[in-house]
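Input chain follows. Return structure tokens only.
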Amino acid sequence: MNKISFKAAVLTLIIALFVGCAPQGQQAAEQAVSEATLTISSPQVNVTWSFSDLQAFPTIEVEYTNKDGETTIYNGVALSTLLEEAGIESFKSLSLVAADGYTAEVTSDELAGCTNCIIAFDDESLRSIMPDMSGKLQVKNLVEIQITQ
């Protein structure tokens, strides 16, 4: 095989690989969203909802301004609604757990009256939005809420 034919064959192979992988990459991202779940766990309760289950709950829009002063509007389910649906009537604190293991804790006193604290539908996952609270509580890729009684 001469040099030109070899280069053409390699180039054709590379293009075929890129073209063949593109739809699968998009499909994988869509599948990740459709498979996103949220679990609320405590010694007495263990409830898991899929992304579509969560979207079936009544939703609200909430504005959140980050530390750089940028405001974003998020859509999601009120945290109080999810706690009620899970049968959590009272608790000492809860831990917001991300897929990568990051955990942020908030007490029930800190959450009292926070009607605009939500679990938001992000582009690729779920996230907690806690306006007027520490940026550490804005947990991306949220997968679990652990309840401490």
